[in-house]
Design a protein that fits this description.
9 helices, seven-stranded antiparallel sheet, Metallo-beta-lactamase, Chain A, 28% strand, alpha/beta, nine-stranded mixed sheet, Double Stranded RNA Binding Domain, 428 residues, 2 domains, 21% helix
């Protein structure tokens, strides 16, 4: 062993082969665009280590006064969270024989974030793929990407996922989104968001949500936010995305000072009402794959892959996952299983990612893209989906807003017209 142990205040890991760099894992709600926030995580990776060595290190933590606050063993690995002189999240992946250890003080613990079980006031759950306005990418006019999803839980609260580009956040579209969210919640004047989840820090995955908050701040209560954004310096978000991240973080802090925040790490599981949340992959799994000076192959590779399970059904959100993310999933789940009822297709069908679709068995595919753009540019990728799902089970967001009522595994869809237009100049 030649590399020094580099996590201050953390007992040294014995065994394996340490990656020579300790990576900055990014912050939570703190602003780390162009500077460190003071809450940025540090991630150390140990390759070629064994389960026994990882368990021995966990015992070493306990002897050093670290208290375990959450843990899990699954078919893919061991996962654990600790409080002590340093807040830690650590996990060991069986097939990779690799341990990742994050010293991360951002936000809440898993237990504090999820809270106690809340009573059901509904007997079903609903999943919505919101129909955004898609057209050719003309900056300041129209957008060819973006996605926005909602899950209404049995306690009548919502889990919201991402949010489209600013060109899609016109007055008519934002009003339609609020109308659909109210409808999901039984016509309530005020809606409660159990959690907002963002897959990755691109502006087409948050600007629409930020505009919705700004316009309807008094009618939307956001209780939690959960994501894991890598540090800005590692890949240099474009100017629009950097500004969107700063704006969204600031808006959440200002509008909701009591907001709970969870920095998502691979392997975490917890419940929000009747939905089980499972973190399948984060950007931390990609660290070390491309060398020291290029931790990621672009922002899309930093997408968090999340699975929600509810009422006998499940949905996996891929964000803009790439083939490299799929390779990690394939290696991790080789010899086991990964399946869902609904699968959000990756990166608006722009990337093919056949390895992901071959791995994840699903019934329905949700495509965050417009049919015009599919027929114009993405025909081959679209028809590739038909190898994994029937045509009638593939739902394109640009066609309609689709709402799927789920009750004890039975799924009943309904549809609403897309209401959108080219950008009307609405303020971000």
């Amino acid at each position: 062993m030649t590399e020094a142990w580099k996590l201050d205040g953390v007992p040294e890991y014995e065994g394996g082969e340490r990656y020579p760099t300790v990576f900055c894992g990014g912050s939570g709600l703190g602003d780390d665009v162009f500077a460190e926030s003071g809450e940025d995580a540090r991630v150390q990776i140990v390759y070629r280590t064994s389960e026994a060595e990882f368990r021995a290190w966990l015992a070493k933590l306990a002897a050093a006064g670290f208290a375990g606050t959450w843990s899990r063993e699954s078919e893919t690995g061991l996962f654990a969270e600790f409080t002590g002189p340093v807040r830690l999240y650590a996990y060991y992946v069986f097939n990779e024989k690799t341990a990742r250890i994050a010293a991360d003080s951002a936000g809440d613990t898993v237990a504090d974030f999820a809270g106690s079980a809340e009573p059901s006031v509904r007997d079903d759950t609903e999943l919505m793929q919101f129909g955004l306005y898609y057209s050719d990418m003309i900056p300041g006019v129209t957008c060819d990407c973006g996605m926005f999803y909602a899950v209404r839980l049995r306690n009548n609260e919502l889990i919201l996922v991402d949010g489209g580009e600013i060109e899609q956040a016109t007055e008519i579209a934002v009003d339609e989104a609020m109308a659909r969210l109210r409808k999901l919640c039984g016509g309530a004047d005020e809606i409660t968001v159990a959690a907002w989840f963002c897959t990755h820090p691109h502006d087409d995955h948050m600007e629409f949500f930020g505009r919705l908050l700004k316009k309807y701040r008094g009618q939307i209560r956001v209780r939690r936010a959960m994501f894991n954004f890598p540090h800005f310096a590692y890949y240099g978000w474009n100017d629009n995305s950097a500004a969107a991240v700063k704006r969204l973080r600031a808006r959440l802090r200002e509008y909701y000072p009591e907001l709970k925040f969870l920095k998502l790490h691979t392997g975490m599981t917890f419940f929000l009402s009747n939905a089980e949340v499972e973190v399948i992959l984060t950007h931390e799994d990609m660290l070390g794959l491309h060398g020291d000076k290029r931790p990621y192959e672009g922002t899309n590779e930093t997408s968090t892959v999340l699975k929600l399970t509810f009422d006998g059904a499940s949905v996996i959100f891929l964000g803009d996952a790439r083939v490299s993310n799929g390779n990690s999933l394939v290696g991790r789940y080789a010899g086991s299983s990964l399946s869902c009822t609904f699968l959000q297709t990756a990166h608006h069908l722009i990337d093919r990612v056949e390895n992901i679709y071959e791995l994840i068995r699903t019934k329905y595919m949700l495509v965050p893209e417009g049919r015009y753009l599919i027929l114009k540019n993405l025909r081959d990728n679209f028809w590739m989906l038909h190898q994994h799902a029937k045509d009638e089970d593939i739902f394109v967001a640009g066609d309609a807003t689709a709402v799927f009522r789920v009750r004890n595994g039975e799924i009943v869809p309904r549809f609403y017209p897309v209401r959108g237009e080219p950008y009307d100049g609405s303020e971000r």
